[in-house]
Amino acid sequence: MFASSSTLRLPSLAAATLVLASSSFAQDAPPPFDWASVEPTTDLRWVDCYQSPLQCTRLSVPLNYSAPDQGNAAIAVIRVPSPVADTDAYRGPILYNPGGPGGSGVTELVAGGGAAYLDLFGEEFDLVSFDPRGVNFSTPAIQFFDTPEETNAFVANASTLLSLDPENWDTLPDRLEEMNEIGDQIKDKFADTLKFATTDNVARDMLRIVEAYGREKIQYYGISYGTVLGATFASMFPDKIDRMIIDGVVDVPGYYASDWTLNLVDADATLEYFFSACAEAGDRCAFGADSKEAVQERYDTLLASLAEEPITLPGGGGSLGPEQLQAPIHSFLYLPRNYAMLAQGLAAVEARDAETLALLFGTGAPQSAVGPLALAIRAVDAAALRDTQEDLQEYAMRMRESTKYFPAAAEIDRLFASGWKINPDHFRGPIGSDNTSHPLLVIGNTYDPITPLAAAEKVSKLFAGSSLLQYDIPGDRKSVV
Ligand SMILES: *[C@@H]1O[C@H](CO)[C@@H](O)[C@H](O)[C@H]1NC(C)=O
Ligand SMILES: *[C@@H]1O[C@H](CO)[C@@H](O)[C@H](O)[C@H]1NC(C)=O
Ligand SMILES: *[C@@H]1O[C@H](CO)[C@@H](O)[C@H](O)[C@H]1NC(C)=O
Ligand SMILES: *[C@@H]1O[C@H](CO)[C@@H](O)[C@H](O)[C@H]1NC(C)=O
Description:
Blueprint: H1 10-17, E1 47-48, E2 55-62, E3 72-80, E4 93-97, H2 105-110, H3 115-121, E5 126-130, H4 148-161, H5 172-194, H6 199-212, E6 218-224, H7 225-236, E7 241-249, H8 252-255, H9 267-281, H10 292-308, E8 311-312, E9 319-320, H11 322-332, H12 339-350, H13 354-361, H14 372-381, H15 389-402, H16 412-418, E10 441-447, H17 453-462, E11 467-474
Parallel strand pairs: 4-5, 4-6, 6-7, 7-10, 10-11
Antiparallel strand pairs: 1-2, 2-3, 3-5, 8-9
The structure holds 2-acetamido-2-deoxy-beta-D-glucopyranose (4 copies).
Residues 64, 66-67, 195-196, 424 line the site of one 2-acetamido-2-deoxy-beta-D-glucopyranose.
């Protein structure tokens, strides 16, 4: 949507706006790979793909594990093979999920996003990732829109339609009706594939990958949505854990109830960390002031002036008021290395410099958390809701107890799920185990805007013997990539 002639570094920007999905950093684009040329098999037949040392394969799995005659899915699997695979030092595969849901493990590894983890884990492992059912190169594919423009239009609409701000409660009945219509349309077109794209099935697919490797137990590292996947796997197959790390932990029981309130409890604290850091950075912070309190005041004043007079974005980008600013600022807080750019964006908003601020906060930027596939997977995973207007209002008030600054950043799921109509019976808990075959390692950060320490604590308590590692850093997960 935006020209790349800007002086701002767009690759980092794109990473910052990927909500609940991990960042990826494109190096030189590798040659494309024709996944259709690989025949899906039930064993792992690796072929070279993209660029060295990557290898790919397609694993054939049942769409419905209870009824294998109902057809198969083909899971696109990719790995960075261990260079010491033929020696005694080799320690097998680590499966990795980059978040989402809807995040593509293939794209992540191709873009080099896996390299940082390989450095961390060591070369005695294969780093293995995959596109979960319905995502990207796995088939059957779920494609709601034909073009990125249509997807962007949906996302732009979604972010204005789906906040539950009390100021807009008079529009709730209409919006509920619209969500019901969208729910009906999606059911008509995609029920046959979406009903199988649930996280418990992705967990079963992971076990198949492990078994096809000739191993009994999983070694797994998951971040963000990958912690939902990991905790689900560990609840379903507690005796199949070799090692499991979940990092940047979502409130998993909340996830299956479409309740995001706990996930936002530290969002304000993360913003305040940004205020402090900006004050300390002095001239190097474009939105600075003498003290943390003064930066906060500058921010509050900015929001008030936007409320009074919203900014019209160029190119039909819509209107930018304080509410529209919530989701982009919130996602900027995920990655501390982008905080300087966040400050530039805020200064641009303050100066009403529409061109610059549109680059940073424009509503056309792809945001995977409100992308239709991410919303759909979360909705099909969750218990059926059918919220009434009163239910939604009660939810909105609870969200506003969690976060003063960012309630609109994460209310999208709740309203969307209210109109959702595809509700297959499937495993969505109870999450936890009193005896995993190896204790889980659960990691959380002190200031995390979307996967707070409280959620890591909650999930850790559900898995007997698990350890909780707390990093005293801002952002979500360890921010190594
Ligand atoms: C999977 O198959 C079982 C057994 O036939 C059936 O009860 C269940 O509804 C199927 N699941 C889905 C999502 O269709
Ligand atoms: C899916 O693959 C395409 C390349 O074909 C890539 O541009 C896109 O970012 C991928 N989607 C995700 C969610 O990674
Ligand atoms: C966006 O919302 C408007 C107003 O409700 C509607 O007319 C339009 O079809 C929507 N566009 C998309 C892509 O959903
Ligand atoms: C825990 O699970 C292991 C197998 O993973 C089993 O050998 C052991 O007996 C179980 N312990 C308890 C207390 O259930």
